[in-house]
Amino acid sequence: MKNKLVIQYIISIFLVLSVGSCKLFKMPIKTENKTVPSSYATSQDTTNSAKVQWRNYFTDPNLIALIDTALKNNQELNITMQEIEIAKNEVKARKGEYLPFAGLKASGGPDKAGAYTWNGQSEEAQKASGGKKYIGDFAISAFFSWELDIWGKLRNAKKAAVARYLGSIEGKNFMVTNLVSEIANAYYELLALDNQMLIIRQNIEIQENALHIIKQQKDAARVSQLAVNRFEAQLLNTKNLQYDIQQQIVETENKLHFLTGSFPKTIARNAASFNTTVFDSISAGIPSQLLENRPDIRQAEQELIASKLDIKSAKANFFPNVRLSAEVGFQAFNPAVWFNPTSLIYSVFGDLMAPLINRNAIVAAYKTSRAKQIQAVYNYEKTILNAYVEVVNQLSGIKNYSQSVDTKTKEVDILVQSIGISDNLFKSARADYMEVLLTQREALDSRMELIEIKKKQLNAEVNVYKALGGGWK
Length: 473
Known about the structure:
By secondary structure, the protein is α+β, with helices and mostly antiparallel strands. It has helices at residues 2-25, 54-57, 61-73, 75-97, 118-121, 123-129, 153-219, 225-259, 290-293, 295-315, 360-427, 433-467, and strands spanning 101-111, 135-148, 321-332, 344-353. Helix content is 64%, strand content 10%. The protein has a 4-stranded antiparallel β-sheet. The two termini are 69 Å apart.
C-alpha cells in the first residue's frame, strides 16, 4: 500500500510538470515555403544543363587541367573534407549515447578508518587486520550503464547529427561548384587580359608608324611641332596602358595558383581561343529543379531537418530520465582471496530523474531550439529565392551580352576601317591630325570594350551553369 502511494505521488508530480510545459509545446513549428514560379520565362522544357558534367561543359583542355588540379590540391576544399569527417564522427558519438555502456575497473590501496567511527570501533575490522591500523582494499569489477531513451531524446539527437553530416556533404558539393566556376571565370579573365595586351601592342605599332610619318611631315613643314607632340603623347599613353594590364595578368595568374594550391608558375593557355570560345545552348529547365540540383539548397534543407529534430530532443528534457546501472566483481583486503565466492560483490540500480524546480536552463534550451528552427526555415527560403534570382540574372546576362558583342563587333570593324581612311585623308591633306588621333583612340577603346563584353558573356555562361546547380558532378 505504501509503495502504491509513492508511485501515485511520483505520477502526480510528473503530470504537474507536464501541464506546466504544455504552453511551450503548443507553439506551432514554422513550416517552410517551397513554392517557386513554374518557369523562368514561358518555356516548360525540363531539359537542364545542370545535369551536364563539368568536363563536358568546358571544352578547353587547359581549363580542365586547372580544375582537376584544384579539386586535388585546393586547401579550402581539403578543409571542408575534414569537416565532413568531423560530422561523421559526431554521428558515431551520438549513436553511442543511446547504446549501453560497459567497462572494467580495478582499484587498490590502503584504507584507515577514524578511531571514533563505526568501522574504527569494529572488532571484526581489528581482527581482520590483525591489529593493524591500515586495511588493504582491492577490487576488480565490470560495470554497466544504460539510459533508456523512452522519449527519443538521444535517437533524435543522432538523427539530427546524421542530417548535419549529409548537409556537410552538400556543403562540399556547393564548394566544388563555386571552385569550378571561380577557376573558369579567372581563366577567361586571363585570356581577356592577354587579348587586351595584344591589342595594345598592335596599337603601339600603329601609333609608332603614325608618329614617324608626322615627323616627316613636320620636317617638310606641312605640320607644326604641336602635331608631333600630340602623336607622341598618345603613343606614350598607350604604352602606359600595358603596365596596368601586365599587373592584372600577374594577379590573375596568382589567383589561379592559389585556387589550384600551387606556387606561381606559367599558366598554360591559348589566348587566341578567347574570341572563338562558344558554349552549347543553355537549357535552364524549370525552377523546381533547383531544389534537386543546387547543393546549397539541399544543405539548407538538411539543416532544417536537423533543427526540427533538435526541438524534439530539447522537448524530451522536460520528461524523466530512466537509467539502469549494474556492477559485478570481487572485492577483498587481499588480492589472493579475490576470486573466493565470499568476495563477490554486485549491485543493480534503476534511476528515475525529472526536473522539478529551476527549469530555466531546459526551457531556454527548448526556446533556443525553436528559434533556430525558425531561423533554418528563413535560411532555406532565402537560399531558394537567391538561387532563382541568380539564374534569372545570368540568363538575362547571356542574352544581353551576346547582343552587345554583336553590336560592338560591328562598331570595332567600322572604327578599324576608319583608321586607314583617316591616315589616307591626312596624307592627302584632306583631314587634320586631330581626326587621325581621335580615330585611333576610338578604335583602341572600342576593341578593349569588346573584349570586356566578351568576358562578361563567358562569365554569364559559367555563372548560369553554377546557378542551375552544375559543376559538382
